[in-house]
Amino acid sequence: MGQGARERLAELLDSSEWRGDFSTRIEMPARALRITIDGVGDLPFPVRAPVTRKLMAQARKARFGRGEQTLSDPGVRDTWEITPDRFTLGGPDWQRTLSGVLDGVRTALGLPPTTVLRAEPHALLVYGKGQFFLPHQDSEKDDSMVGSLVVSVPSHHTGGGLVVEHAGRSVTYKASRERLTFTAFYADCRHEVKPVTSGYRITLTMNLLAEPVRPVGGPGGSPVADLVQCVTEHFTQPAEDRYGYGRTKPEPPGRLVYLLDHEYTQRGLDWDRLKGADATRADLLRQAAGQADCEAVLALAEVKETWDAQPPYDRYDYYGEVEHFDDCEDDECEGECLLDPDGEPGAERRRSGDFSDYELTDLIDDEIILGWWTRPEGGGGEEISLPVPYAEVCATTATKDLTPYQSEYEGYMGNYGNTLDRWYRRAAVVLWPRQRSFAARAEAGSAQAVGELQGRLDAGELELARTLARSLAPMWNHHGSGPAAAPLFAAALGVAVGVEEADTAAMLLAPFGVETLDERHAPDLAKAAARYGRTWARGVVASWFGPVGAYTGADRDAWLETLPGLGAALRSVDGDGDGVATPLAEGVWRAFEQQLTGWLGIGREKERQAALERLGTPLAHILRVAGPETAEMITTALRSRPDTVLECLLPSLRTAARRQAGVRDGTPAARAFQSLAEHCETRLTAALACPVRAADDWSLTPDRGCPSDCDLCPGLDNFLTSRTRRTMEWPLAKDKRRHIHSRIDLAGLPVSHTTRRQGRPYTLVLAKTDAVFTRERAARSRAETDLTWLQEKWPRPRG
């Protein structure tokens, strides 16, 4: 659908009739409510200071939610609360009054007239002078929660205004001194309580719950007919290339994704609980979808936008440059660096915070990913992962007009920068033609769609299952890694075995990461390898690793803990489990070897030792799953590495020693560990046989040298290898000093380097430290301890 048609659809939904706002305020007589509190009794209105002090004696410091945590921080929320189990609500007119208020709230917020609202008490709050609650969103504490209701009881106070904002609008509500004040707003609205300046502010907070009653009938007529025309055009005309300047793609879009205005949780996203204009617009789209022979679901989207942005005027210096944090006093630096004069140069650093006052100029890039959606037939939803292209997106309210939940600004960095990244959470109505329902769901990684393939196989419809499975090839892309992707992988694996087509089976399994595999998959993996052969199995296993170093979002170390169990399961089930286990072990080793090689070349001792020690446990797991040939290949490769490899091998041997039940005599793993233990013993014995460094020997071995063959490094190497020279003074310009700093630091040499800022150029002062001797003594002590442990835990076999 061209941009003009998308704009027409957005305008149609914007002009659709709906009544309501994101918040509202209603006043009622104070006599309608009686609050009885444990330890205080009935609360008299208006509430005065002596009674308030009694309330505070029965209260506790209020807490707040952040993610899955419940926290107490007076810098965020400073107030007192009494929980609902400590008070009761009553009065002869209370229920009738509350019912009338809820009817008014339903109408004011634009909820359907047949929706039934309930109010559930949450807390009684007391704000004293100076107390406040910073901007926040209320968590949806119940599946049916749509908003919050704040009942302010009469009291004499100033300040403490309740500020509610949504989509760039902000409204401030103040309490009455004589009447009950009811303020209602949707749960996704950010709101805050300003500091109380005098007296006490007392409120009753309640959760607004909407009963899932579907409206009868609904809007119709001309708006729906016009929407049907837009939807039909969208799915029949070629998609528009965002940067094609009139060029079009050959295929029409596969979906229409209309972004809603409010935020929802997975629990709260339901056709019957949409908020305000969302409810009206979604109902219109749903009607249009039905008439256009489309399916419609609700979805949750993560949206990221990158804008070219400028800080407000007061962040510019006199010359118009963006300010940066420069403590450098080096005249040579000319204000370039943010670190010390000999550190790396940089400009304004990336910062997180509130950048609402920054001016957005051009949209550089945006990204929308659907992460969850409801099922077309209802009955809950499922996790998905679906990037949405530009040609499928439509919205009445631009994302930039909403409030992001996170922002990061990158200042000017010479040839890039002045960019503002903003992240949002939005809900959406997603439409697709009914005839491509299977493809639309399968492309998103829907386990339900793959389950449909299995259903065809179970029903004996092999050819239809194959046809549907082949149709996935253009869209069956990366579907994640780790436990979250395991159910979808299990479904795809079952289908891969059943379709009896090697290429189709490989296509179904390729988009997953290796961390998805676990013992439950072993039987079907062995069946697939037996059915399609070891060459097929090796290719599929290779696809699970992807590019070396690619980020998968999964925890490789945690998965490696399960690898020995997976290998044992593969080799114990019917089929050809070894046809999967062997390439799996080889692939894990290749990925591991890349890490090992990188860390062995690091000269900074503490950093290298810590990293290689962490690699010891994964190495033990890899050896336990390796077959005879793979284990021999791994041990041969490890024995050829430099002495620093012992910093990985010894932790690996310690892991194996702690888990000897999994390393039985005669197994490939047992032989590999014994071979590595003997190799470590030989190297440690040779190291301890070397003479101890003489007390006057200050020589150091240079690193692998300068990659650029500059004229400075020979002088540095001469200083390092000298037995007698301990210091060196070297007049050098800034860039040359940086080069020497870099070589010393990257090699982790025990040489201090400082700059004496006198004369021109400044003088670089190098000094060998006592670590020349202490490091060697510590290494010898470690070697003695390790050798003793090896001879005790891994003795050489006799004979």
Strand content: 15-25%
Mean residue pLDDT:
84
Radius of gyration equals 34 Å
Q: Level of helix content? A: 25-40%
How would a crystallographer describe the biggest sheet?
8 strands, mixed
Q: Which structural class is indicated by helix and strand composition?
A: alpha+beta
Tell me the number of helical segments per DSSP (H or I, 4 or more residues long).
21
Q: Name the poorly predicted regions.
A: 214-221, 314-350
Termini gap: 81 Å
Shape: globular
Query: Using DSSP, what is the number of strands?
Result: 30
Structure explained in plain terms:
The protein is of the alpha+beta class. The protein is 37% helix and 22% strand. The protein has 21 helices and 30 strands. Strands 20, 21, 22, 23, 24, 25, 26 and 27 form an eight-stranded mixed sheet that branches. The chain has a seven-stranded antiparallel sheet with strand order 1-16-12-19-10-8-4. Helix 13 (556-572) packs parallel to helix 15, helix 14 (578-600) runs antiparallel to helix 15 (605-625) and helix 15 (605-625) packs antiparallel against helix 18 (668-689). It is globular, with a radius of gyration of 34 Å. Residues 214-221 and 314-350 have low confidence and may be disordered.
In short:
With 799 residues, the protein is an alpha+beta fold.
Per-chain topology:
Blueprint: H1 3-15, E1 23-29, E2 34-37, E3 41-42, H2 49-58, E4 60-61, E5 64-66, E6 69-71, E7 77-78, E8 80-82, E9 87-90, H3 94-108, E10 117-127, E11 132-136, E12 145-152, E13 157-159, E14 162-166, E15 169-173, E16 179-186, E17 190-193, E18 196-199, E19 201-210, H4 222-236, E20 256-259, H5 277-291, E21 294-310, E22 351-352, E23 359-374, E24 381-387, E25 393-395, E26 406-410, E27 419-433, H6 437-443, H7 447-458, H8 462-470, H9 486-499, H10 502-509, H11 522-532, H12 534-545, H13 556-572, H14 578-600, H15 605-625, H16 628-639, H17 646-658, H18 668-689, H19 713-721, E28 727-731, H20 734-747, E29 751-756, E30 763-768, H21 771-793
Parallel strand pairs: 20-25
Antiparallel strand pairs: 1-16, 2-3, 2-9, 4-8, 5-6, 7-11, 8-10, 10-19, 11-17, 12-16, 12-19, 13-18, 14-15, 14-17, 20-27, 21-23, 21-27, 22-26, 23-24, 26-27, 28-30, 29-30
Helix pairs in contact: 1-4, 4-5, 6-7, 7-8, 7-9, 9-10, 9-11, 11-12, 11-13, 12-14, 13-15, 14-15, 15-17, 15-18, 16-18, 17-18, 18-21
